[in-house]
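seq:
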Amino acid sequence: MLVFEWLTYWPDLNGFETALSTLIPVLTLGVAIMPVPFSLSIIVVEVLRGIFYIFPVVHSGPTVYYSVWLALIVIGYEMPAKYAIPITVIAALDTMVDNAIFQVPFDANDIGFAATFLLDGFAGLAIRRNKEFARLRYEQREQAKQIHLVRTLHDDIGGSLSYALLLCRNAQAETDPDTLRTSLETITQTVESTLADLRTNIITPLSASTPASTAISRNVDESTTTGSCARLCQNVLRQPALLEQAGFNGTIHVSGEATDESANLVNICLTEICNNILKHGTHSYVVRIRFGERTTLVASNEIAAGEAQPDSAHHGLEMLESRLHDLGAAMTVSEEDGIWTLAIER
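struct:
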């Protein structure tokens, strides 16, 4: 279109006018190489044309305006809003210079034409904002995946390794061959299961090349509460069995009627609490879970000798507290006379 119009007007143009008429197509082609500088150059040419009327008549036709429309979209997309908006407004006002100089009344066509300049500039801004929003959403999803992987490492992999380590320590003091053989079988199964979880839940997602393969099979997304009651029941049965096999004596009491949402909340906490009991506790423990208008979870156990706090590195409890805060729950931890107590309420 640009070349066709240039050829149409070319026979009637002198050398100076020909050079100026060639300028707009050249600048338009340059947008593909350096978008911002060439787009700004097009706007400058258009503003000068409107102010001084030194360019030939071709520049008042579609040739200029096709290029200006393109330039305004590029400027809106590439430049910060504090620069793009004033440039767009100046270009739009420039379309009305003719009317202002010759005192011609403005009509709907004049206003509509100026509005197309404004729309082009703001369209570029909208495209940029949409791209930035998509980038932020992508970063948020990637961050959520990384957090999920860290939680899997801490809750499942770390908990299983702590369990296997405690079984190994107990086996060192075991003298009965049959009991020792049983303990070694349990240790082997635990380590094999942990290795499988590590491959499935950590190595595969990190090395995967497609988003679909980053799904963690064993851990259900915390934002999905469907089936939470069933998962909580399985965990309530699983955790005491693991603790008992590691030499702990205790119970998990559950009362009240749970909803999927409240069961999901408790299930998030239970594994971490039992891991802390396993790593830092000794002898007995008690976990009481009550569902109702308010969901409460209270866990207490004796702290092992040499353990100053339930989680000396604080990483597990800090992550748990952050997760609970996101779900609208509060957590308190206290220690008195060698008894560690953790309370959660929502």
